Amino acid sequence: MTIDGAVPPSGATQTSTGMVRVTHHHPALTALAAEGLAAFQRWGDEVGESTFVRTGCAFRVDSQPSLADAGIAAGGSLVDGRALRSHFPGLRCPDEALAVWEDEAGHADPLQCTRQYLGRVGETRRAFVTALRAGHLDTTDGSIEADRVIIATGAWAPELVPELPVRPRRIVWQRLRVRHPRSIGPSYIDEEESLYARWEAADTILASTNCKEFDIHLGEEASPISSSFLARGRTTVTRRLGIEVVGPSEPIDGFDAFTPDGIPIIDVCEDGKTYLATGFCGVGFKLAPSVGRHLADWVLTGDRPGPLAAFATRT
Length: 315
Ligand SMILES: Cc1cc2nc3c(=O)[nH]c(=O)nc-3n(C[C@H](O)[C@H](O)[C@H](O)COP(=O)(O)OP(=O)(O)OC[C@H]3O[C@@H](n4cnc5c(N)ncnc54)[C@H](O)[C@@H]3O)c2cc1C
Description:
The structure is a single chain. Helix 2 (about 25-45) packs across helix 8 (about 290-300). The protein is α+β, with helices and mostly antiparallel strands. Helices cover about 25% and strands about 30% of the residues. It has helices spanning about 10-15, 25-45, 65-75, 80-85, 110-120, 155-160, 225-240, 290-300; strands at about 1-5, 20, 55, 55-60, 75-80, 100, 105, 125, 130-135, 135-140, 140-145, 150, 165-180, 185-190, 195-200, 205-210, 215, 245-260, 265-270, 275-280. Strands 4, 5, 6, 13, 14, 15, 16, 17 and 18 form a nine-stranded mixed β-sheet that branches. It has a three-stranded antiparallel β-sheet with strand order 2-7-3. The chain has a three-stranded antiparallel β-sheet with strand order 9-10-11, with no helix packed on it. The relative contact order is 0.19. The chain binds flavin-adenine dinucleotide. Flavin-adenine dinucleotide binds near residues 5, 8, 12, 155 and 252.
């Protein structure tokens, strides 16, 4: 049974830009992302109508050899500035630039994917869980006894497990209209420039130009995104990617659960009945299929699957 206080997808998944790529800083995350990508590629056979669009993705790794190694180990290839410019006409980068090129990467629609997953679930109940104790749930729709419970309440997880080291942080992207529409190209990530970008349509690009997420407080209204912040983002896209955009842009204003070390928490509590899957730190959409599969195995067998070993709770 799935219980959600709102109509899913809500929370972070609702605003996710749906990039599905593999290279991450932590090898265990890269491994989960590789499994996730494979699941998106098989989606049509296993879940429902696929929304996955293969575009390729370049992740700049100029001075990050360990990141390059992770991407190559996961099937990516190392490319230089010249090769990058063949994928991104207009890109400003030196010939000696380095990036991991993921040919199979792409994006999928988080709203449709969630709805399709929910269509496969036995029962979905709309209720807030207000308290949880070793398999006993108090909800706004009465009490429920359960052998096993998975808490996957994103940034709200500490409301049910207060000791969790998870905080909500705001993530802002923007939807930008392109002056000269073109066919959908690859995604691009340059952490040094704080630039994440992916095409949505021939005339629209989604971009995040602030990798520094902001702290927020759940239940309190967040301050509006300033027009100068958005204008700086538009300038960065034009300056770095060589793509002319026309304003005003539409902010995509979301938040996710962040852990202090940037690694999710996927674990079981001392009661042996309560499992945790939270703290996805802005990268969790692509991981959902692999996290879900491994958690299901864990719940059914009682044995922690190897790929989840790195995600035990840190205090
Ligand atoms: C702007 C933005 C862009 C992003 N882009 C990407 C991307 O390109 N690729 C990528 O891989 N990831 C991306 N992410 C990250 C990704 O969206 C999240 O990591 C992921 O969706 C987290 O999913 P979740 O299920 O843990 O949490 P959520 O999606 O937040 O879901 C939590 C759910 O728990 C429910 N809930 C909370 N408390 C209770 C309660 N007490 N009782 C009942 N229900 C409750 C909520 O209603 C909600 O439905 C992005 C995030 C944002 C904000």
